[in-house]
Amino acid sequence: MRPTIMEKVEGLRGINSVKIKEASEAGKKVVGMYCVFSPQEIALAADAIAVTLCGTKQEPIAEAEKHLPRNLCPLIKSSYGFAITDTCPYFYFSDVLLAETTCDGKKKMYELMGKIKPMHVMNLPQTAVDEDSLESWKKEMVKFKSFLEEKFDVEITEEKLIDAIKLMNRERDVMKRLHKLNAHKPAPLTGMDMMMAQWLKGFNVDKEAGIQLIEELIKETEELMDKGEFPFTEETPRILLTGVPIGAGSEKVLKLIEEAGGSVVVLENCSGYKGLDTMVDEAKNPIEALAEKYLSTPCSCMSNNNARLDLIKRLAEEYKVDGVVDLTWQACHTYNIESFTVRNFVKDELGLPFIQIETDYSDSDVGQIKVRIEAFLETIETKACCCGGTC
Ligand code: SF4
Ligand code: SF4
Q1: Ligand 1 pocket test, candidate residues 34, 36, 38, 277, most atoms within 8 A of CB
Q2: Domain of 23: which CATH number?
Q3: How far apart are the first and last CA of the chain?
Q4: 121: which strand partners?
Q5: Largest CB tally within 10 Å, which of 10, 180, 216, 291?
Q6: Does the C-beta of 246 come closer than 6 Å to ligand 2?
Q7: pLDDT-derived band of residue 202, with 50, 70 and 90 as boundaries?
């Protein structure tokens, strides 16, 4: 049974594109961001709107390929395609863009995108968290703060930063509580709905209204659970989806898993739980606390990225997962190489079935992926059988 509030959540797309226009016309500044490493709090403390711009659709890719190599991650091509075709209202109304030096493809694409709109690039230290990387990332936080202060002619006070941290922590907390509902067996929400709720919150112009809506979704989902109404049964294979970020338009693999009879109970990726795992420490100096939180993001562009394995382990246990699907966008070297480590960890340490799927945003390989997913789910079902897979 699907919560009726999901229709309201999906309606946010239309509402937010009108709201951002109104806010911009009323003089409100907009900061467009591309990554989970982006400290939204600093933009909010500048009294601006922070929106997520990551491209998740196939449509603008053909135009992007006129400037970028075809053999490039679709997320990068889609993000750039939206920028040059001016077909994304959130990009259009962004006064400034925030970019980070994450993977090489994104970093070089930003050099081109930076010619379209004012852009600030945060220099991400790509090593695991230690004293030096933290110090350097703290300086990057301060530089971004100064950039916004100068661009928007505002003062970002410590008080404003603390308020923004509290607001973002509340948003993380409500999303985290929503995700945690799926630890129940069977899961009360489909992976598709979870992903949509998480992805759409990135466009929320009014964060308080967005938090309220997710509270309503939690309440209705809990009521359905009390009535015993679930979209899955206890026997449905429970899948953890890890790897690259997805969103509306790039949900192909998630959709295929659920159409084939699986239940994606948790999305470990950036469009799922990853950014929610740790809160910003409200008791610390705000810049230091922000640096600590964001630098701990377990992305494949970090070396080492053992924190991703730790997170997969915790989530696999908490969500009682039966198998792991690792999604990689074509030409994403970091996630593709890391998949070998993740595969060994999932199979040897967690003792769970694992499959990697490498694809792009097009529909050309849907049939082939469907067959692989069906075979993967069958393996899980066989293992779950009382005979131990011999019948
Ligand atoms: S996968 Fe890494 S680079 Fe991509 S959005 Fe997430 S944190 Fe950013
Ligand atoms: S999916 Fe990979 S290649 Fe694409 S932007 Fe993210 S890290 Fe870069």
Answers
A1: 36
A2: 3.40.50.11890
A3: 33
A4: 99
A5: 291
A6: no
A7: confident
